[in-house]
UniProtKB/TrEMBL annotation:
This is Prohead serine protease domain-containing protein. Residues 24-157 form the Prohead serine protease domain. One of its GO terms (biological process) is proteolysis. GO terms for molecular function: peptidase activity. It comes from Albidovulum aquaemixtae.
Length: 185
């Protein structure tokens, strides 16, 4: 986790190997997952984004899609950001009409960029018995494409390929690998 001079905190999340940019650079997946400890010792709790998303909608504002948390480099738009049972689900488009958007699309397609990071301000948090910071409410400002992820479990998938389908394929691959390992003994 990093903190800017303005109190904005940033969390990094891994995009995953199944990332694809399709149909005019559409991407979707999870920018944050609930109940999972990230590398900074933070755990985002279910409902943490709800008030912020509702307030932004009421005010007609949107969460920004940035390149590496740089507010001078918007690279696309998030068409949909919602909380579900797993976390913060995002759907958006990289804008190839802007230079950095074209570069981001090329880097993502080639697998050179594999991370997402959320920029937010903590509203309510508490420490648990293990010393982890439980984020109960955050004000979400932006979701960036980044080089280094903080939460490897967050993933993007191709348009039409749900994150749940990616998760099931990965689980099946793990079982298959375990079966081959046991059979090879």
């Amino acid at each position: 986790m990093m903190t800017s001079d303005y109190g904005l905190e940033m969390k990094f999340c891994r995009l995953g190997e199944d990332i694809a940019v399709t149909d005019g650079c559409r991407i979707e997946g999870y920018a944050s997952l609930f109940g999972i400890t990230d590398q900074g010792g933070d755990v985002v709790m279910p409902g943490a984004y709800g008030k912020s998303l509702a307030r932004m909608k009421t005010e007609g504002r949107t969460v920004r899609m940035l390149w590496q948390h740089d507010p001078a480099q918007p690279i696309g738009v998030w068409d949909e950001i919602v909380e579900d049972r797993r976390g913060l689900k995002v759907k958006g488009r990289l804008l190839t009409e802007v230079e950095r958007g074209r570069e981001a699309a090329a880097l993502v397609t080639a697998g050179a960029i594999d991370g997402l990071s959320i920029g937010y301000r903590t509203v309510t948090a508490e420490k648990d018995a293990k010393g982890l910071r439980l984020l109960r409410e955050v004000e979400l400002w932006e979701v960036s494409l980044v080089t280094f992820p903080m939460l490897p479990e967050a993933r993007f998938g191709a348009k039409g390929d749900s994150p749940e389908a990616i998760e099931l394929r990965e689980l099946a691959a793990l079982f298959d690998q375990a079966r081959r390992t046991v059979a090879g003994r």
